[in-house]
Amino acid sequence: MTSAKQYVVGDGEGWTKGFDYSAWTAGKQFFVGDSLVFNYSQGRHNVFKVNGTEFKQCLKPLVGSPFTTGKDEIELETAGRKWYICGVSGHCSAGQKLFINVLEGSAAPAPTPVSP
Questions:
Q1: CB of 40 closer than 8 Å to CB of 67
Q2: Calpha distance 94→65 (Å, rounded)
Q3: Which residues have C-beta within 8 Å of that of residue 93, sequence separation ≥ 6?
Q4: Keyword set for this entry (predicted)?
C-alpha cells in the first residue's frame, strides 16, 4: 500500500507567471488522495479551480471563490481532468495555468528488496 503524495506545483518556482506547467506535469501521475500545493506570494496571485472551457479561455468561474493563502493545498478527491488558473488579470494568458488528469487507485508500490 502506498501513501498519498503531495506535489508542490512548479517545485521551487512555485505558482507564478512564465513557468511551463505542462513540462512540470510531464512524467507525473496524479492519483485520488494526492494533493497539490500552490506556493506564491499572497496578494500577487490566486488559484481558481475551473472547467475545461474556462481553462482554455482563461476565464474566472462565475461561481466559487479563489484560493488566496499563498500556500493553498488542494486534495485530489475524485478521478478525472482538473484545471487550475491564476485569476489575476493577464496571469493565465502568461501561462499561469495547470491541467492534470487524476487517476483512480494509487501508484504501484516500490518492489521490496530481497535480502541476501
A1: no
A2: 21
A3: 58
A4: Copper, Disulfide bond, Electron transport, Glycoprotein, Membrane, Metal-binding, Signal, Transmembrane, Transmembrane helix, Transport
Q: Would you say 2 and 75 are in contact if contact means Cβ atoms under 8 Å apart?
A: no
Sort 18 into a burial class: Cβ within 10 Å, 0-12 / 13-18 / 19+: exposed
- Going by their DSSP bridges, the two strands 97-103 and 30-31 should be labelled as parallel
Q: State how far the Cα of 25 lies from the Cα of 16, in Å rounded to an integer.
A: 15
Tell me the whole-structure pTM to 2 decimals. 0.88
**Cell numbers placing 37:** 500545493
Mean pLDDT of 64-92: 97
**Gap between the Cα atoms of 65 and 61, Å rounded:** 8
